[in-house]
Amino acid sequence: MRKLFIAGNWKLNKTIPEALELVNGLRREVGDVEEVDIAVCPVAVCLAEVADATGDSNIKVGAQNIYWEDTGAFTGEVSAPIIKEAGAVYVILGHSERRQFFGDTNETVNKKIKAALKHDLLPIVCIGESLEEREAGKTIAVIQKQCEGSFAGLTVEEMEKITIAYEPIWAIGTGKTATSAQAQEVHAFIRGWLKKAFGADLANDVRIQYGGSVKAENTVELLSQPDIDGALVGGASLKVDSFAGIIKNAVGIKK
Ligand code: 13P
Fold it and tell me: Is the CB of 232 under 6 A from ligand 1?
């Protein structure tokens, strides 16, 4: 059985006081929820204080990116050992905004995954097609290429630490959610690919989140699909009520 996993990607939002207000509110609302794994992913500079504020609750903390070297002359970057020490458990890698604006590729995502795993971080690896690619009928080919490139050279034991987030780019921040059937189709393909590449047991264990305009109102419909194991939430993770609403709606859905 796969436990549902809801993660909030705060992107470039929230100062330290704002981040603390949000995490304290979430702790009050959903800090004792055990049926669902919960993570919040603040801006790197807020990680340590947000992690402290989660205390012994079930809310864990993730970063939004790392560089693949641990230390060195890489101005402006953060690394796996540094975010780990700050309290991160997870790290989002290969988000489409990073691929689009900051040059992340399947090859660099692969290096970042290996760096994260070396330091016992749990990667949330984002993949997804653009509107142009979907309209050209290339969705599955794009997803396959992203999987092959991002997960190249990983062992089954390493893949067990990974969550995949399927985020169709056209559904991110647009209010335009993929239909549950559209999302399920791609999630089923990803699981099928995992089975071919790493075997049935691993494919059955890996959680595949959906991301793209998830809100409390569409959570049940999406997460009831057999291969959708949670959500990576952007806009709706920035307020206590909307993020807590998603988590509460996810409780009780079984895989
Ligand atoms: P929205 O939920 O704002 O569409 O963002 C999704 C996302 O990019 C999460 O990583």
Answer: yes
Q: What is the CATH number of the domain that holds 126?
A: 3.20.20.70
**Residue 22 contacts residue 54 (beta carbons within 8 Å):** no
The reported pTM is 0.98
> With 90 as the cut, is the pLDDT of residue 255 above it?
no
- Secondary structure of 51-104 in the HEC alphabet? HHHHCCCCEEEEECCCECCCCCCCCCCCEHHHHHHHCCCEEEECCHHHHHHCCC
Residue 255 located in a structural domain = no
Residue 11 lies in a domain: yes
Specify which residues 208 forms β-bridges with: 164
Residue 1 banded pLDDT, cuts 50, 70, 90: confident
Atom of ligand 1 nearest to the CA of 92: 10
> Whose C-alpha lies nearest to ligand 1, atom 7?
234
Q: Is the pLDDT of residue 176 over 90?
A: no
Answer yes or no: is pLDDT of 159 > 90: yes
Active-site residues, by number, are 95, 167
